[in-house]
Amino acid sequence: MTNSTPPAQPGTTAFFLQAAISFAVSSTGVAAGVVYLPVSAWVRAFLALGLLYVITSTFTLAKCIRDRQESQAVTSRVEQARLDKLLAEHDPYATPSL
Question: Contact at 8 Å (CB) between 9 and 37?
Answer without folding.
Answer: no
